[in-house]
Amino acid sequence: MDPDAVSKAFVEHYYSTFDANRAGLANLYQEASMLTFEGQKIQGSQNIVAKLTSLPFQQCKHSISTVDCQPSGPAGGMLVFVSGNLQLSGEQHALKFSQCGITTKKEIEIEMEMADVLRIGECLRGKTFVLLF
């Protein structure tokens, strides 16, 4: 299986689910998964989804610019790096974001394995604000 095609399909599924129903991301994380949010480490599928669903915006649309991946480990996992734009409902300007995660392969499904780091930046009058997820 082509790693680039698999990672692009995973990314499409992840962000379309994030945009439409963040609670639906629960099955992509494991109990050992960790999300870093502004220096706060959040572990476990339920805790991660609780954090993502509590973000201060309800509607958003991701526009993916790049997807880079490389194989990670003998079990068919991948390191996936994504960058793009995040348009929040009611906002004129999109936010830039980048996200890096490690996936694992379980039969046909791919899920986040160990780590997920998301950065969102906004340029405002020459200043960049960055949130670490």
UniProtKB/TrEMBL annotation:
Domain NTF2: 6-120
Domain of life where this protein originates: Eukaryota
InterPro entries xrefs: NTF2, NTF2-like_dom_sf, NTF2_dom, Nuclear_transport_factor_2_euk
Cell location: Cytoplasm; Nucleus
Protein name per Swiss-Prot or TrEMBL: NTF2-related export protein
GO BP annotations, alphabetical order: mRNA transport; protein import into nucleus
PROSITE patterns per record: NTF2_DOMAIN (PS50177)
GO cellular component term, pick one: cytoplasm
Coiled coil: none
Function: Has a role in nuclear-cytoplasmic transport of proteins and mRNAs.
Keywords from the named record: Cytoplasm, Nucleus, Protein transport, Transport
Alphabetized Pfam families for the sequence: NTF2 (PF02136)
